[in-house]
Amino acid sequence: MAGSLVKLGAWGGDHGGKEYDVTVAPQRLEGFWLRYGKVIDCISFSYLDKDKTLHTVGPWGGQGGLSEETITFEPSEYVKEVHGSVGPIGDYTHVVTSLKLVTNQRTIGPFGNGAGTPFAVPVLNNGSVVGFFARAGPYLESIGIYIHPF
C-alpha cells in the first residue's frame, strides 16, 4: 500500500482459511458489518480511498452466527481502538472470539463471547483505523488493521 498507511497484525490463527485484503489503499472507514455468535463468523466493511471513491469488501468468513450488526460512522467519527479476543471453537484453536471498536464518539460492541486471549490496538497520535485484512474459513480466523496517521 502507498504512502504513510500502516499495516498492523494479524491477531488470531491460521487454520487454512483464505487470506483477504483490500486492493485499493483505504483512506477513511465508512462502515463495518459483522455476523457473530460465540465467535466472529464473518466481517465486511466499506471505506473511501484517496479519491473519495467508496469501496465495499467482504463478506469475509462463514455463514454461521445468530446475530449481525451494521455500523455506519458519522462524517466526523473515526475508529481509534480495536479490541478483541482469540480463542478456540470446535477443532479450531485460534479464531477471533470477540471484537469491539472504539471511536472518538462511542464504543461499539463487544460482539462475540470474548473467550480466550484478549488483544487491544490503540491508535496513537490521532491516527485512525481505515481498513482491515483477514484470514477466514467458516469463522474469522485472524484480523489485522490498516492505520492512517493524521
UniProtKB/TrEMBL annotation:
Keywords: Lectin. The keyword Iron-sulfur does not apply. Signal peptide: none annotated. GO terms for molecular function: carbohydrate binding. Gene3D superfamilies: Jacalin-like lectin domain (2.100.10.30). The keyword S-adenosyl-L-methionine does not apply. Pfam families: Jacalin (PF01419). It comes from the Eukaryota. Residues 5-149 form the Jacalin-type lectin domain. InterPro entries: Jacalin-like_lectin_dom (IPR001229), Jacalin-like_lectin_dom_plant (IPR033734), Jacalin-like_lectin_dom_sf (IPR036404). This is Jacalin-type lectin domain-containing protein. It comes from Oryza glumipatula.
